[in-house]
């Protein structure tokens, strides 16, 4: 049995004790603490934390969830981490978010489906239980594919609209994907939709310095919710978003970004397309459009959401520039069928 100190980002420390061959995530749950967690199989990376001291065993995970470089730097997946000594683990979330509570399913009805492009669609759900939902801008829920036992994780692309009790999501259309097939071929307004959550440590913190947001594809979704929240509260600091996609067809929700730019005094954004065949004027990847001013000599909070290669590319870019940001929050996502 080993003691593990969990240090949360709001400077709160909680101590747990692990049983023989018990993971840190399981021990935390047993102790009434929900560290950020989803798959429990070392596949999603949601439970990634940093081990400041101590020894441990960790295997049975995939590189998309935790790269070799991250493992060498002491990052761990708490769902696979089995302590072999007392440990100190930094959790990238507040202690309040990690208080264990029963996450009841939210039953809603499908009220809108918008095919934004050949590659992307949005959907909206409404209902009394939706109005009562509490989540942080940037978090996600698991959505049950109607008619199946399968669930898919989607970030909120809006905050709850109290007027019509609705909330929206942005998803990529995947050929033969369960949710994609349902939404494009079977769904009807009024269908029942079940949500479970919220989950995730990728959420907007208090804006205390300039912010750089980097979105890849449908990784734009959590930033739309973040910007909606910022529009309500305002910001004294500059916020810049770079939205990168692979093909022109992936360019969606630009009107919303323009509206945010008009409504939030300090918000600006840029858009780039990676494909050489693109007709969009700004080509390349998001890293091609990060300017020194965006990094602000390290006095910047970076939020990053996209596929694993993009997250790795941005992490390498920041390290190579030698300008370590005050904070780097990121969420990797992979496309599921």
Automatic annotation (TrEMBL):
InterPro entries: 2Fe-2S_ferredoxin-like_sf (IPR036010), 2Fe-2S_ferredoxin-type (IPR001041), 2Fe2S_fd_BS (IPR006058), BenC-like_FAD_NAD-bd (IPR047683), Beta-grasp_dom_sf (IPR012675), Cbr1-like_FAD-bd_dom (IPR008333), FAD-bd_FR_type (IPR017927), Flavoprot_Pyr_Nucl_cyt_Rdtase (IPR001709)
Keywords per UniProt: Ubiquinone
GO molecular function: 2 iron, 2 sulfur cluster binding; oxidoreductase activity
Keyword Iron-sulfur: no
FAD-binding FR-type domain ranges (all copies): 103-205
Domain 2Fe-2S ferredoxin-type: 2-95
Protein name: Benzoate 1,2-dioxygenase electron transfer component BenC
